Here is the input.
Amino acid sequence: MLSKKTKYGIKALTFIARQEKGTMVQIATISESENISHKFLESILLTLRKSGILGAKKGKGGGYYLLKPSHEIKMTDVIRTLEGPIAMVPCVSLNYYEKCDDCPDEDACSVHKLMIQVRDNTLQVLRNNTLADLV
Amino acid sequence: MLSKKTKYGIKALTFIARQEKGTMVQIATISESENISHKFLESILLTLRKSGILGAKKGKGGGYYLLKPSHEIKMTDVIRTLEGPIAMVPCVSLNYYEKCDDCPDEDACSVHKLMIQVRDNTLQVLRNNTLADLV
DNA sequence: CTTAAAACCTAGTATTCCGATAGGGTAAAG
DNA sequence: CTTTACCCTATCGGAATACTAGGTTTTAAG
Here is the structure.
């Protein structure tokens, strides 16, 4: 299951991407338009800023904006930032690899074999989709 | 993330599939061989039996066995039984569809658009893999 | 017929995670 | 120097996960 955090994050990003380039978008604007709790959204956008996807400007007239053109923002990065690993099992994760403690031989493991395929297919989809593709 | 329930379930099924056709396999055998808690595994195999993937025989010399040849057991069925919906969002689920209450227009939703693709790719992988492919 | 072995079933529990909320702190326009 | 809007930490209830406990029923074997 996709967490609401990720879901809201993607919605917020596409909302920002739909504006004219360089426009400042405020939390309140997104929150109202997309039906997302203001405070919750705040923490999500903060995460996206820290990961280098969004920039922010404080003070009156401030807000959030994309740091890169939307066609350069890959969904893999967005998902990894908000949701964490894309793989469904740590032992097939590229960025968050962890050995299973119950499994002596990874190459002989049926779950491993299956989940590698799922991961590869999912990765392909997410890599081929940028923010621009979703707008 | 794949739950341990599903992970253990797949491991147990492949263990059974590796035996000669029609062999009774006991919980304890699988539990020891695959490092899975006996009691937890018990509840998992029960679920698989109730869903019609496994058969069981009680009493001495009893155990679990596959109801169909392993190449007819699709991973979609196994995952749906143990993990639930394959889709990452209810609004793109084929078997467990549910409308998002925050989203007025599904066709305009970026999350929807993306997750449809992920679902289709995952489904393809899981449909093309049977138990026999994992053994 | 008895007993042991095995699945079956119900219930409970400890822990973890999620979604959200609270409440202020800090910086920059105007 | 006040308002606006982002920044940060902490907390909390509810749901889901991953087991655990203990008893019941069925079957085969002695």
Q: What stands out?
A: The mean pLDDT of chain A is 95. DSSP finds six helices and two strands in chain A.
